[in-house]
Amino acid sequence: MRWFRNASVVAVALAATLGLAACGGGDDKPAAAGKGGAPIVVASFNFTDSQILAEIYAQALEAKGYPVTRKLNLGSRELIYPSLKSGELQFIPEYQGAAITTGFGKEAGKTAQEEHEQLAKLFEPSGISLLNFAAAEDKNTYIIKSDLAKEKGIASISDLKKLDKVVMAGPPECEKRLPCFQGFKDVYKLTNATFQTIQEAGPRVEQLKSGAVTVIPVDSVSPLTGDSNYTVLKDDLNIVPTENVVPAVTKKVVDERGADFANAVNAVSAKLTTDVMRDLNKRVDSDGEKAADVAKDWLSQAGL
């Protein structure tokens, strides 16, 4: 799930940290030798799914002989976009709907293809290109306890109206985001709902388990979405846009590296599915494996 810090907080971070290359997010690896030229700088946001995807694309490129430098676990779009536009960062696996709504403040299209065309136009003035989007999505999803869902007949977000009281727990930015609590109020008209800020995902889950809160947002690739103890609520009024993974790459890199580079990246995207990402996320978040290791295993299994 792509929860991001407020712009004011990020502005402080930017003022204090000039140059991502200097800080590197604490997860740098040396560039691999390869087809010559400067290393391609692959970045990730500061959550598991993004780091796994960055590793998958980085390792796939290295396997084709391209030099790569990783800048992982960097933070939010407010932090990353300026460095992407300047060329300091050159490649990031993005999520189409969130990039449009959060990155550019626009209303996202209704289909993955519409979003792809829309996002490409938004990025174009900054010299950033999009390659093919994947079937894989990581989107905001809402879960409640299954015993409550069964008892009250709750299968969708709209069904939460059946409850006397609904408490959503989420990170602070969720309260004012349309795909989150703001949508519960403005679109679903849940007058029985209140919001509680809980920054970290682990404590949110514990509060849900205890019954202290009713519903929490999780990633669609979270292992919790497949846990029988929880029920995923249908977003019947579609407040959450489609969130297909798409590589955003500086036009300079795309032009310089040519068709072979684009084909190598697109070959990865063609095999990425939501089920694949859910499994890889589980291996990192639940089983304690390293993102680089699960990325390597999957690439091998996928013949990439």
From TrEMBL:
Signal peptide: 1-21
One CC-aspect GO term: ATP-binding cassette (ABC) transporter complex
Record flagged with keyword Signal: yes
PROSITE patterns documented for this protein: PROKAR_LIPOPROTEIN
Transmembrane segments: none
Residues in ABC-type glycine betaine transport system substrate-binding domain copies: 39-301
Keywords for the protein's UniProt record, in alphabetical order: Signal
Taxonomic superkingdom: Bacteria
CDD domains on file: PBP2_ProX_like
GO molecular function, one term: transmembrane transporter activity
Entry keyword annotation includes Plastid: no
Protein name (Swiss-Prot/TrEMBL): ABC transporter substrate-binding protein
Organism: Amycolatopsis iheyensis
Upper lineage: Bacteria, Bacillati, Actinomycetota, Actinomycetes, Pseudonocardiales
